[in-house]
Amino acid sequence: MNFIKYKKSDLYDRVVDEYDIFENSYDFMVFLAALGYREDEVDREGFEGSDDDGTRGQIGVDNFFANDLYRVVATSIAFQDTGEHKALVDVELQAEKLTQYAAGGLRVAEREFGTTAGDPTDAMVNYVQNLDESPGGGYQGTLGDIVQSFNDELLEGEAEDKSP
Amino acid sequence: MELHELELQNFRQFQDDTIEFAHGGENGVTVVHGANGSGKTTLLNAFTWLFYESVDFDTRPNRLITEGVVADADTGEQFTVSVRLEFAHEGSEYVAQREAIYEKRSNTDFDGELLDMNLTVEENAGSGWEGRGNPANTLDQIIPERLSNLFFFDGEDIEELAGLDNQDRIQESIQNIMGLTILERATRHLDAVAGRFEDEVEENASDELSALIDEKREMEEAVDSLERDKSDTKRSKERIEGEIGDIEQKLERLDESAALQERRGEYEAERERLEEQVEEINNALRADLNDKGFVPLAMPLIQDTAEDLDQMRKDGVIPSDLNNSYIESLLSAEQCICGRPLEPGTEHYEQIEALMGEAIADGVEQNAIRIIGHLNQVGELDSQFHESVEDLISRRKNLHDEIADQNERIDEITSELQEMEQTTESGESIQDLEAQRKSKKEEVSEHENELGRIQERIEQTEEEIESIKQEIDDQRDEREEALVAKRRQRAAELVQEELEVAFEDLKGKVRRLSNQKIEETFGSIASKDLSAEVTEEFKLKISQNVGGNQIEVDKSTGERQIASLAFVGSLVDIARDRYESESDSEYFTGGIYPLVMDSPFGALDKSHRRMVSRVIPTLANQVVVFATDSQWEGPVAEEMMPKVGKQYWLDFDSGEAEGAYPRTRIEAEPATAGGD
């Protein structure tokens, strides 16, 4: 398995080991990467952490790519960050970008939940629950339309293929 | 181990008596009948004196020798007290004998003075009798002293096993009986070995490294001391909780406060149940964050990507009929799809080559479509997260309101109790008891805070130790001797860590096995809705099934005794299974043990006695039971008689006649007068 280096802090230990909010460090990392992208916070320099100050962690890349939705997030981040088609297929690039945005997300998380005394579950739930936009509806409509357009086109393609 | 014969000489009231134990076959039970005070407990003590030179007598604890023998003797005369046991163990025959020589010092000396003590153990492994060099050690290996009260036990205190403060005993029992102490000892030794190598590193190290090692050791000592504080505080907290339980029992016994105390207990139990539900909701919130929490955060990202991919679709980039690898294959085959040759350098070749830039790379289309394929799922998860969290938070709020109501009810009862004046027999009023209860509750909460602080300091110090260890590992300037010692130290530490993991695993395994057996045994004896188990903290817990939930209940003496018997029985049974099984398990050798029980029915009512008697003979291959006639008659005799191989009666003469002294004879026929 390939491993990636990532930047960690005590917050990883707190949410994974101490309070069992996330099952694995990579679950928290995907959460952070999504947060980093949303808040436009990305760390392109220190995203691998450092052994000197104990901020370096290591995670097997397969952990992300075994989960379909984590893969969607990693692919999307790399695609949005680079704007290049190849980002949709380049796994190494996707892992690197995921790590950069997770390191950026970690800064946001430290500000938002890092100072909470005790269990940060509620602070995290509230943060996600009270994001700016209205939940569900808007996105679901847009995403649904896009899915529909693709379906129509692909079905049309198939129909054309089958025509004599 | 199989007991064969016990011979007593001048041991308390037994002047010259012998018991042959039933063993082998279906009738492995030996019953010794005796009235209270006739010497049943003395017989139990004969075993522990022989094995460990340890006795526990209620009356005249220092007198071992038969009173009449000393009284009738002249000053200066010497006597021998002796207990001799023949037994078999793991294919060998043994004769163990402890002798103590006493001398009468004066006319009024009835105890005698101990002059000499001697223990011998002879073994015959098939090739003749030979004395064992270290007899005490031999006996301790056969039945370790720490374990003795499991095999030679007094029914009157067996139920303590299910009481407070007994995790250590239970844990020890589990370790001992399975031979797991070997692992425990090995890890301790490895710790010492690692320490010795560390000394060596220090001797050969630079000043800097040496200072780091000192610092690490100081911190390790600090952690040890904090661990001791933690266990003291924990014990003290449990003691206070026990005292609170006692106060609550007193309140339950007083007419004026009984109903209120009972109701308060119910409210507190309900509050606990509600608090557990709150914790379940918190866990569900954590699970939502883990499984779906990233989705709402990722919605803008996914929407941006979906829109870009949709644009690619509108632009005709996807779905695409052409891709680079297809064009490459045409160029390398030097033949166009239309059949014309494609020669490098020709205009046609360049036209086809130029298409490569416009075509998309391999996999792009599949990945784009894969993302689109998950968009509906993403949208659903986003909605599910919000709906689920909203529902959980609202349910949690309701639970908090209910908890507040319970607190109010509890406070009201507390206020009522604080004004009551009825007193207990010892003169404590309900007011006093309430005040004590309140202050003890505060103490418990202080102890809990203290435990939290200690734990935090332990974790902090452990982290610091880890970082110093890292610094020590990073030191590169020391001499070859130090490097070798450091490697050896690390090797010892690694083995130690591995063994600790194996030890914990095995301990857990035995605990689980033990629980299976306890469930069978306890389930067959106790009431239907009660169950007993050894918890992960090695507490023997009795629970009641209330509406599908297992709730820990206060144990009656009888239930505690049954749970303890079930536990002891489970261990003996597991040890026997392991010993007889052919599997070649490394640490888990097990063994065959007898059970010697003094009054195991004492605290039980008739129906429980019947059930315990049914189970006891199944607990071990060999069982020795001491019982009074009233304990034996009826259900116990009916259940156990078919399994009894030998019976004895203790014929006790209290020695009230002139010139007579207390004496018990062990008879193979019933004595003329029996009873309690």
Task: Describe, in plain words, how this protein is organized in 3D.
The complex is a heterodimer of chains A (164) and B (676). Chain A is mainly α and 164 residues long. Chain A folds into 2 domains: 3-120; 133-164. Helices cover 61% and strands 6% of the residues of chain A. Chain A contains 7 helices and 2 strands; from the N terminus they run βααβααααα. A two-stranded antiparallel ribbon of chain A has the order 1-2. In chain A, helix 2 packs parallel to helix 4, helix 2 (25-38) crosses helix 5 and helix 4 (68-82) crosses helix 5 (91-113). The longest helix of chain A is centred in the last third of the chain and has 26 residues, at 137-162. Chain A is globular and about 50 Å long. Chain B has 676 residues and is an alpha/beta fold. Among the domains of chain B are: 2-143 and 595-610 and 617-667, 3-Layer(aba) Sandwich (Rossmann fold), CATH 3.40.50; 293-415, no CATH class. Helices cover 58% and strands 15% of the residues of chain B. Chain B contains 19 helices and 15 strands. In chain B, the strands form 3 sheets. Chain B has a 6-stranded antiparallel beta sheet, covered by helices on one side. In chain B, strand 9 (530-534) and strand 10 form a beta hairpin. At the A-B interface, helix 2, helix 4, helix 6 and helix 7 of A face helix 9, helix 10 and helix 13 of B.
